[in-house]
Amino acid sequence: MSAPNPLDTALLRHRFDRAAISYADAAVVQREVGNRLLERFDVMRIAPTHILDVGCGPGTHTTALAARFPQAVVTVVDHSAAMVARAVPPTPGLLARFTGLSKRPRIRGLVSDMGRLPLPREHADVLWSNFALQWANDLPALLAEWNRVLKIGGLIMFTAPGPDTLNELRRALTKAGEAANQRVQQFTDLHDIGDMLVHAGFADPVMDMEVITLEYASAAALWRDIKAQGAVTSMLSRPRGLLTPRKLRAIESALDSARKPDGPIRISVEVIYGHAWKVAPKKTADGHGIVRLESIQRGPKP
Length: 302
Prior knowledge:
34% of the residues lie in helices and 21% in strands. Strands 3-2-1-4-5-7-6 form a seven-stranded mixed beta sheet, with helices on both faces. Helix 7 packs across helix 10 and helix 8 (167-175) crosses helix 12. The protein is an alpha/beta fold and 302 residues long. The radius of gyration is 22 Å and the shape is globular. It has twelve helices and seven strands.
């Protein structure tokens, strides 16, 4: 299932490269929901030795992952080289290395398309992804690739924006006479993601959601936040050229009209949380059944 409005991946990478410096301060929702996702490890008895932080951005939660699982190597993955450079801690000095005083987590960087990972099959125990699913043009193919690089019994944990995200902005665009579906990306419903997980070979997906409301003093502050996160429209179908000052004022007026007197502009973010486990496949890629020798009951010895 390809995205209804495919993204221009080259443009998206360029925007994330430019946003690497400003992303961490602007990504308030991503930081908060990532913290909440980390807490879900508290009820899981796992001891991973290799974790993939896919769509890592500037490493917002990479150090926390490494600290929670000090025995694990954490590989950060992003298609933006600038983001990966920020996610990997600097190499400790010679004195720290020779004296054994270095406490640098075992964090490695990998610049790659998250849907085509240059990693062997069954490579990692945990794949963590915070607010990155929405940047995939083919979500089922992405989840199948993530399943490929996880070991049997491995865990996928992720967050993503849901379809009600930025509804206020969509309404303002429509009121101003703009085609909202060409200016604001459409996001996938949690039930559809759950179905895709099962189809990709994951078991027992657990999905839930919540809505977080952001408040802005002005539309200008909202535009700054979007740009600082590299989240400006990157759809191939996007209108070319900048909005005219008149059109921009109309959009901002529509946002203002929706708020209470002297109140902030409110923007909703529907947050989807999910996790699932990789199970041993029951069929080969060409549809033949798999019978595992260890599952066959052996008869008594003669």
